[in-house]
Specification:
TIM Barrel; 41% helix; globular; 8-stranded parallel beta barrel; alpha/beta; 13 helices
């Protein structure tokens, strides 16, 4: 498993555990320098991450050698029309301009349901055209559920899927979907390694929405301590022990956090965290958080 750099914090006030808000530009430069030094190749971004792409575009010319993965617009329509496919291409080309790169490694549908509604094939076809042109190497989607994976695999030949996996969210492991993706030769990028930092927070400091999971988080952190690990080391180590994951996307607020994550990724994967899985979407899906 390789570590990839998530960049939402570079353009937004992002993460429940991030009281300081958007990462300052100077610190963003230090984060990218650390990523280059640590051998990180994959950088995950999106046009919806505030001005993340613009920030990266000012730094990347000085820090080459990265594989950039960006995303499509979110359409949320019952039916995709030709104009939507044209907008996808227009916004992707703007992303390349903002990033200051001639091509991207990956282009993912940011909202998987856009590919599953009537006319969703128009978006995939436009993504394939961009690949044929050589401005993107791999196409895929960002998914949330096993049902979305099933629908996408039935309809399309995709090359990269970004999926949620962490100590609490083991649904795609239990269902066998991660194994199925690897059987199909699909590159798996795991996001939500820390569930926006929830796994690393003091349970008693959490908002009321998380009242029902506080005890569960406390037990996870106690188990990590029992094994001589920090919660961060336990969270990354858990992912390191999942062979189907190619890249674990981790967002950070500063370069010291990234250094700690990279050190944790080099440790021997710990054991004993499979029992901390939950299935409550109100906790596992940040879009449903009431905070």
């Amino acid at each position: 498993m390789r570590i990839g750099l998530g960049t939402a914090q570079l353009g937004l006030d992002y993460g429940i555990s991030n009281p300081e808000g958007k990462t300052p530009f100077e610190e963003a430069g230090r984060i990218l320098a650390t990523a280059a030094r640590e051998g990180i190749r994959v950088i995950d971004t999106a046009p919806s991450y505030g001005d993340s792409e613009q920030v990266l575009g000012k730094i990347l010319p000085l820090r080459g050698g990265f594989d950039i993965v960006t995303k499509t617009p979110v359409f949320r329509r019952d039916r995709i029309i030709g104009q939507d496919a044209a907008l996808l291409e227009e916004i992707f080309r703007r992303s390349l301009q903002r990033l200051g790169v001639p091509s991207a490694y990956g282009l993912l549908a940011h909202h998987a349901e856009d590919l599953l509604v009537d006319g969703g094939d128009r978006l995939v076809e436009r993504m394939r055209q961009l690949k044929a042109e050589g401005v993107v190497a791999r196409i895929g989607a960002s998914v949330y559920t096993a049902q979305q994976i099933d629908g996408l695999l039935e309809r399309y030949d995709l090359e990269v899927l970004q999926v949620p996996v962490n100590v609490l969210d083991q649904r795609l492991i239990a269902s066998g979907h991660l194994a199925r993706l690897k059987e199909r030769g699909i590159e798996v990028h795991a996001r939500s390694a820390f569930l926006q930092g929830l796994l690393l927070m003091e349970p008693d400091s959490l908002p009321p929405h998380f009242h029902g999971v506080r005890g569960h988080l406390r037990e996870f952190q106690r188990e990590a301590e029992r094994q001589g690990l920090s919660p961060l080391q336990a969270a990354i180590g858990f992912l390191e022990g999942i062979p189907e994951i190619d890249v674990a996307i981790a967002g950070v607020n500063d370069h010291l956090q990234l250094e700690e994550i990279c050190r944790a990724a080099r440790q021997i994967p710990p054991e004993g965290f499979a029992g901390f899985a939950i299935t409550d979407p109100a906790i596992l899906n940040p879009s449903e958080w009431r905070v």
